[in-house]
Design goal:
Helix content is 80%, strand content 0%. The chain contains 4 helices and no strands. It is mainly alpha-helical.
Length: 107
């Protein structure tokens, strides 16, 4: 059986985002800056893709991973809510990380 999948360039951007997030979070833990948020970012960076992958395996034929995520979110599936919260947290992590480093370099 063949399922529809996202284009390869989407996956490249996705994994670059995850790897750089993991790298900046580890960097923050080592430098002891925003340590609790960095540990949480590491946890989300590792757990969210694994949970998404496990739950996307059983999707119906003809829909891609993103469509499956949003359809499950509309149905109130806990894994999709956790995944969306995780991605939103990672976005907030990047905003805080960049603001914190930007203000540091100006001083």
């Amino acid at each position: 059986m063949y399922w529809e999948a996202l284009p390869n360039w989407c996956w490249v951007i996705y994994y670059i985002f995850l790897l750089t997030t993991l790298g900046t979070a580890i960097f923050s833990v080592v430098k002891k800056k925003m340590k609790s948020l960095a540990i949480l970012a590491i946890g989300f960076t590792v757990s969210v893709p694994m949970i998404s992958l496990i739950n996307s395996i059983g999707r119906t034929e003809g829909i891609n991973e993103l469509e499956h995520l949003f359809s499950q979110l509309q149905q109130g599936a806990m894994w999709s809510i956790f995944t969306i919260i995780g991605y939103l947290f990672l976005l907030v992590w990047w905003i805080l990380f960049l603001i914190k480093n930007r203000t540091k370099t100006k001083l």
